[in-house]
Amino acid sequence: MTSRSIKILLFLGGLVIFGIIFSQFFYLYKNWDLKDEEFDQTVNIVLRNVAEKMADFTKSELPKQDLIKRRSSNIYAVNTNSAIDANVLEDYLVQEFGRHSLNTDFEYAVYDCFSDNLVYGNYCSLDVDENQEETPSEILPRFDDLVYYFVVKFPSRESYLLSNMRSSVMFSLITSLSILFFLYAMFVIVRQKKLSELQKDFINNMTHEFKTPISSIKIASDVLASTPEVLNNPRYLKYAEIIKDQNNRLNNQVEKVLNIAKIENNNFKLNLEEVDVVSELRDIIKAEGAKTENAIITTYFHKEEVHITADKLHLANVVSNIIDNAIKYSKDQPIIEIRTSEENNRFMLSIKDHGIGISKDQLKHIHEKFYRVSTGDVHNVKGFGLGLFYVKNICSSHGWDFKVQSEKNNGTEVTIAMTTTNKLNYE
């Protein structure tokens, strides 16, 4: 994932998070208002019913206006126009609260006109939670514009409303946890991206630093191999050839790492030209055969000359990588079959070996960078696990189809479908 993609992802993620948080707060606010309105309406119905029962009990008439007054969010006063029996009032309150399923604690007080004070009645707990502590109010507010009235207070109104909003609160908590996980994931992605960039920079700088000594070793080995003293001494000549071969191997690995770095940084460009692919295959097979004397490479070319548009250098690297893998992953004598054909205006290249093969669970990972197939009892396989990752990217850059078929202990067949006409828009 590129830095630009991560920035876009963070920006879009931030917008989504802001939208979700805003929606949740708005939803909870509206839900709270709705529950508070429902609570107020239910309390008014309950208190009106209680007032009517008290009026029937005392054979009096209720006032036509201002029967119920709300002093604050949880304090109500009921004007009865007659003296109030506290014991009867409590019974009526408990009955009506239960009948309307208003299961929340309340406390009440009755105004005594003789003492001109509110006389505290009782703290009534209707909550199913028996362990809840009762905390009666010391003072309930007076209503100076009323004569005969009682006051009811709901000390646990907020917790009651929240309990009725349990599903909304749970959904909000789940959403908040999801947002936290998303933010943590974004933090991890950004952190891993920085570490990955540091790793890439280090590898690129290191491989670039290798280029100078590799070039110096190549010049020195060429000079050493051409001196008369070495040419006349088989042992020295063998050592000089080993230095040259190992230096070439190291140079190939460094070039592979640099090319992959270019691919990942989108700095990779193909030097396209018209190539006789059959002629190139012959040269590559000859060079690969010279590396391993006991390898048997059989070719079946359907034509002597086929022209395609390709990067000549990377074409050679792709074929060399595949043949090199076929040789490395063979237990005994490597036997490799290379076939060509033409299907639907495409040049088909097939490279098949009879080596150890690849199991199904490993086959899906072979295009991953640094992934290496388990070789079992074959212990001479070396490399960084970059070969097929490089091959896959080069084929994709050319617009070629790349397919690998393999079965454990029955060998592997790699097929590349190349376009024979220059109809692709290369950059």
Structure summary:
With 427 residues, the chain is an alpha+beta fold.
Plain-language structure description:
The chain is an alpha+beta fold. The chain has three domains: 3-164, no CATH class; 191-264; 272-419, Histidine kinase-like ATPase, C-terminal domain (Heat Shock Protein 90, 2-Layer Sandwich). Helix content is 52%, strand content 18%. It has ten helices and twelve strands. It has helices at 3-58, 86-99, 157-164, 166-226, 228-231, 234-264, 277-291, 312-328, 360-363, 387-398, and strands spanning 68-72, 75-79, 106-112, 117-124, 149-153, 272-276, 296-300, 307-311, 335-343, 346-353, 401-406, 412-419. It has a five-stranded antiparallel β-sheet with strand order 1-2-5-3-4, with helices on one face. Strands 7-9-10-12-11 form a five-stranded mixed β-sheet, with helices on one face. A hairpin with a 5-residue loop joins strand 11 and strand 12 (412-419). Helix 1 (3-58) packs across helix 2. The protein is rod-shaped, with a radius of gyration of 43 Å. The chain starts with a helix and ends in an 8-residue tail after the last strand. The relative contact order is 0.07.
